[in-house]
Amino acid sequence: MNETIYVSVGGLLALAVAVLVVIKPTRPATVTALAWLASIARRAWWWLRFRITWKGVAREAGLSKRRTKRVKKMGVGEESIERWRDPRLKSVTTSAHAVTLKVRTRRGQALADLEAFAPKLAATYSADAYRVYPPKRRAGSTVMFELVMRDLIKTPTVAGMPEPRMQTESVLLGRRQSGKPFHLQIEQRHTLVVGASGSGKGSFLWGIVGSLAPAIKVDAARVYGIDLKGGMELTMGAPLFTQIAVTGEQALERLREFVAIADARTEELRGVSRNHKPAPGDPLYVLVIDELASLTAYADQDIKKEAERLLKRLLSIARAAGVVVCAFVQDPRKEVIDMRGLFTQTIALRLRSAMETNMVLGDGMAPFAPAHRILKAAQGTAWIIDEDGSTDRIRADYWSDDLIRRVASLYPAEPELVTISDAAPDDLPGMQLSLTDGGAR
Ligand SMILES: Nc1ncnc2c1ncn2[C@@H]1O[C@H](COP(=O)(O)OP(=O)(O)OP(=O)(O)O)[C@@H](O)[C@H]1O
C-alpha cells in the first residue's frame, strides 16, 4: 500500500516538473497564470477542508450535543442510535487571504457559546488572525467567523506624502487585514490610541497629523499638541502644530482654550446646524495628547485634577462643534481608562494581557479583538471596533522621521497663527532644532 502511495506521489511530482519545464515558468504571463491557478487551488482546498472537518471540530470543541435514542428493532428488541446536533455551517466563502464561515447555533445553544469558540477555531486551522462579526440577517442566531489564512499585513508598508488635497473628515492610515485601505474618521470623533511601549503609536499619531497637513496649511484644521515628555515626539513635526504645550500649566491653558472654543461654537451652531463643517478660516480644532497618563496620572495632584475635569468636559461636549481630541497612552490603567467611555473610538495596539484588552476595548472583547496577541515585531498593528460593532485588525503605515520633517516643512500651519508654547527655548532643547528645520517660524 505504502509503495503505491510513494509511486503515485513520485509520479505526480515528475509530471509537475515536466509541465514546468515545458511551459517555462519564468515568463511573466506564465508566472501570473501559475499564481492565479495556485490561488484557485488554495481556495478550493480551504473550502473542502472546512466543509469536511467542520462537524468533527465542533464536536471536539464541545459545541455539538450527542443524543442517544433507543429504537425498536423489528422482532429483536431495541437498539441505541447515536445522534449529534451540530451548529450548522451555513456557508463557507473564501477570498485570496481568508475564509469566512457563517454558522447558525444548534437548538438550545447561546450565541455567546459560538462566539467564544473563535480562538479554538483559529488555532485548529492555524489561522494568523480571526474576527467575529454579526451577519446582515438573523444576527440573533447566526455568527460570521473570518479566519485570516494568509496574513496580508505581515509586511510593513511605509507611508508616502499625503494627498495634496484638504481632508478633515477622515484620513488614510494604513491597511485592514483584508488588505483594503483603512481610513480613520477624524471629524466628530474623539480618538484614544493605546499600546505598550514600542508598539507603534507614532505611526498613528503622524498618520493623523501628517494626513491633515494640507488642511493645516489652508487653515481648515488647527492642530495643538500636549507633550509632557519634554516635547520629544511632537517636536519632529512642530511646524504642523499651532502650539505645543510641554508643561502641565501650558496643558491646562490649552484645555481651557479648547473648552472655550467648543462652548462658543456650540452657542453659534445652536438652531443653525447640528454639526460643524470645517472650512479654510473656520477650522477643525484637533488636540493631540501624547502620553495621556502624564497629564491624568503622573502630573502634580492639582494639575491632574483640573486636567481631568477639563478633559472630561471637552470629551463630552466638543465633537459636534468641530473640536476633537486624539490621545495616546501606553498604560491602560484606571486613571486613564476612567475616561475611556468618553472617547468615541478606541484603537488597541499591542497590549500586555487579555485584561488590558478588555480594559481598552470593552468588557469581554479579548477573544474578539485579541490585541494582547499582537507580536512585538508587528509594530503598527492594532485592533479596532467598527461602527457596526464588528472587530478588525489593521496596520498603520510607517512614518519615518524624514517624512515627518518633509511634510512639516511643506505644509506648515499659517505662520501668523503659530505661537509655539510660551516656555523659554532653553527649556526645550529639541524644539529649537525643529523650528529651524521646519523653517516656518
Ligand atoms: N507602522 C509601522 N510599521 C512597521 N514598523 C513600525 C511601525 N510603527 C513603528 N514601527 C517601528 O517600531 C518602533 C517603535 O515605534 P513607536 O516609537 O511609534 O512606538 P511607540 O508605541 O510610540 O513607543 P513609546 O510609547 O515607547 O514611544 C519604531 O522605531 C519603528 O522601528
Automatic annotation (TrEMBL):
Pfam families: FtsK_SpoIIIE. ATP binds at residues 195-202. It comes from Nocardioides luteus. PANTHER family: DNA TRANSLOCASE FTSK, SPORULATION PROTEIN RELATED. Keywords: ATP-binding, Membrane, Nucleotide-binding, Transmembrane, Transmembrane helix. InterPro entries: FtsK/SpoIIIE/SftA (IPR050206), FtsK_dom (IPR002543), P-loop_NTPase (IPR027417). Coiled coil: none annotated. This is FtsK domain-containing protein. The keyword Phosphoprotein does not apply. Residues 179-358 form the FtsK domain. The keyword Nucleus does not apply. The chain crosses the membrane at residues 6-23. GO terms for molecular function: ATP binding; DNA binding.
